[in-house]
Amino acid sequence: MKIILILLIILIGFIIYKTKKAKNSSQAYQEKTVEINENQKHIDKNKVASIESVPKETFELEIDDNIIRVFSLKKSFWDSPAESLVYETLKIFIDENYLIAPHVGLREIFYWDWKYDKRITYKVNAMHFDFVIYHKGQMMNRPALIIEVLGGDHFNEQKSWVKQNDELKLKILKKLDVSFITIDLSKSMPDEEVKKMTIKTIKDKVPSREHYTVYCPKCGSVMELKPNKTTGTMFYGCKKFHKNGGCNGSRDITKVAPLYNGINIKDFNSKNND
Ligand SMILES: [Zn+2]
Q1: Interior angle at CA 177, CA 239 and CA 78, nearest 5
Q2: Backbone dihedral angles phi then psi of residue 218, each to the nearest 5 degrees
Q3: Which residues share a beta bridge with 230?
Q4: Which residue has the higher pLDDT, 20 or 112?
Q5: Are 100 and 131 within 8 A, CB to CB?
Q6: CA 236 / ligand 1 centre spacing (Å)
Q7: What is the C-alpha to C-alpha distance for residues 88 and 77, in angstroms, rounded to an integer?
Q8: pLDDT tens profile 165-223
Q9: Which of 186, 210, 234 marks a domain boundary?
């Protein structure tokens, strides 16, 4: 019995000793890590001042009452009165099969590898598009059209970062092959002019169905407009179609929700004339 007790005491003593040692070494490790991080910070600072690492540790999540409010308590949901007018106008002529989502963060639209150049990642995290138009049946696909409203800031030489952000957006959208148009509202103009400018821009820049992405009902690939070989009528054929097989998915052009055909110019004009 005594022997067991002595063994137990020795065992406990051994465990305490080990734990302490492990603690010490982990502390040493942490200190070393901090040191390396400090060095890293130093290097980064020398390289690019704007790079800061995302804090990994947890911290007090205190949110001041004044910084968060529902939009209804803010004067306007919109960044500018012009954006609100553009939205009102778009609602008139964008086909009901489409959803107009205002103020959408870039990362809601596409996947972004955060391990990429941090400076660009931070930009991408913080940026949004003014209007993103989705086909309601294809929300998981790329948007049908993205619209940016260009206020005075976009042409202000002093605000070079706005221009750079615009360039970045354009680069990304080109890579993703998403239709994109801008509405120039940099000059101040009366509300009716803003509406007219919106309509004109859509008419000029979105002249045909070819500018909208249509997806194959069979395989989900992008479709292209082509003429039927015998009748000559246009239809949407799958881009993956080829003579020796591939996908033969097709869609009747009149059955595809037409953004452009949904533009009710006549109605809008008659409203204007009233
Ligand atoms: Zn297909």
Answers
A1: 135
A2: -90, -50
A3: none
A4: 112
A5: yes
A6: 10
A7: 13
A8: 988 998 888 888 788 888 999 888 998 899 888 877 876 776 554 555 677 889 888 88
A9: 210
- Under 8 Å between Cβ of 101 and 76: no
Tokens 């911290």 found at: 59
Residue 50 lies in a domain: no
CA 41–ligand 1 middle distance (angstroms): 50
Spacing, Cα 246 to ligand 1 middle (Å): 8
Q: Residue 211 Cα, ligand 1 centroid: separation in angstroms?
A: 19
Q: Residue holding tokens 């065992």?
A: 11
CA distance from start to end of the chain: 106
Q: Whats the size of the chain, residue-wise?
A: 274
3-state secondary structure of 128: strand
Residues 85 and 195 in one domain: yes
CA of 244 to the centre of ligand 1 (A): 14
- Cβ atoms of 221 and 247 within 8 Å: the answer is yes
CA of residue 222 to ligand 1 center, whole Å: 8
Task: Examine residue 4 and state whether it is found in any structural domain, yes or no.
Answer: no
Give yes or no: residues 184 and 228 share one domain: no
User: What is the token pair recorded at 267?
Assistant: 């109605």
Its domain, for residue 186, covers 81-210
